[in-house]
Fold this sequence. Notes:
Layout: H1 3-9, E1 12-18, H2 23-27, E2 54-55, E3 61-62, E4 65-66, H3 80-87, E5 89-90, E6 95-96, H4 101-109, E7 120-121, H5 130-136, E8 138-140, E9 143-144, H6 151-160, H7 178-184, E10 189-193, E11 214-216, H8 220-226, E12 235-239, H9 262-276, H10 279-282, E13 285-291, E14 308-309, E15 316-317, E16 326-329, E17 337-339, E18 343-344, H11 346-356, H12 365-372, H13 410-425, H14 427-433, H15 436-442
Parallel strand pairs: 1-12, 1-13, 4-7, 8-17, 9-18, 10-11, 10-12
Antiparallel strand pairs: 2-3, 5-6, 8-16, 13-16, 14-15
Helix pairs in contact: 1-11, 3-4, 8-9, 11-12, 13-14
Amino acid sequence: MTPDQLKQNVDTIIVLMMENRSFDHVLGYLRHPSGGNRGDIVGIDDLMKDDYVNKNTDGEGIRPFWRTDAPSSSDLPHSAAAVREQLNYVAAAQVYLMNGFVRAYEDEFHSIVRDPPVLGLLQAKDLPSTAPLANTYTVCDNWFACVPTSTAPNRLMSMCGATPIADTGTLLPDQPTIYDWLSAHGIRWRVYAAGLPFFALMPKIAPLLLTSHFRRFSQLADDVKNEAAEDWPQVIFIEPDYYDCPVHFRPPCDNHAPLAMAPGEAFVAEAYRALTAHAGKWSRSVCVFTYDEHGGFFDHVPPLAIKYRHPNGAVAFDTTGPRIPVIVGGPYAPARGVSHAKLDNTSILQLIAERFGSPGEIYSSEVQGRREQGIESAATVLDVSAANTTVCNLGGGTAAAAPSTVNNSDLRKGFAGAIQSIVHDHQTEAMAKYPELRDYVKG
């Protein structure tokens, strides 16, 4: 779609961003003869392919394998250092072999394994929401994590277009966000969060959590059905309940290992049913189902050669991260389509600027820099004549309890500190909006 077509046909852009899965892990099955047998998608065509072999510490070659969806025993390595090992760049040949996933896993846990979870691949039966969406809308098989590192930098890239940090710490640094851009342009926006929103970790955003810009996910269905068109947001962000947060409003459902996919599949189904319940609103919507980064799971496609340099000098990357599973849905997403365009989550920022900015306006110089290196707008996925009016029936998953193992991660510490700060500074409003915080703070 061109910017003019976007302005004429699209009223609402919706972004549902999950956590930490790779393309091959979730959607690679689509190409395999036992899966979708879709030759148009760059996925897993043969488990015995030598290119997929990862050697363990003993030098034994391990191949990807089909696994049944279930909780993992732990999180998987996906720090900047771990991702470098996973990509396995060979300078002499100037290629990324994409075969260091097992070694990175073994280095993290100091053990040798024969069936490492990093190489486990899911199939359609494990994906009662994602599989029907992939068959109904457009799969993007060349969509990558923005940078080859962990959650926080990739979420900053996704929601700000820049990151001054190279790896995940506790709190997010204050910086301009997409929320600032939308507010400055007079665009109606809203976040529907199933738990505490991720940007509670950014101190300057925390007070906004108590405003009407942030609503509980449980309000989405009613708002879709009953809110007047002039009040309905033009940009919507939908967030799961994060596994790393110590306070949950529902069973965590962000797909972050060690969680199984099932709770996330149930969450996606609930969001999709709510969004499609009002035919008029859905008919003028674009919905991007995306992930922030690959989370340590295997993908066989090398990253894109997109350089990123932050002015602080502390952050420098020469490529994107590995591929992530992204589906673009809505009436302008070609049915059972595939896009091979070079994309990452800053492609969504480009899309938003094209639809809601002035003619020719860019989102930011940083995002424009990525565009000049080949990262395209998500608008390239859309077709004004697609007329994809199908609303698919999602089976959902089981909103099961989280594994008993709890990551003592920096993000968990960050959420804990953010909760204490929000309650300390805005006790009455915070307790009224998020009563679940009361017991945690008292404890």
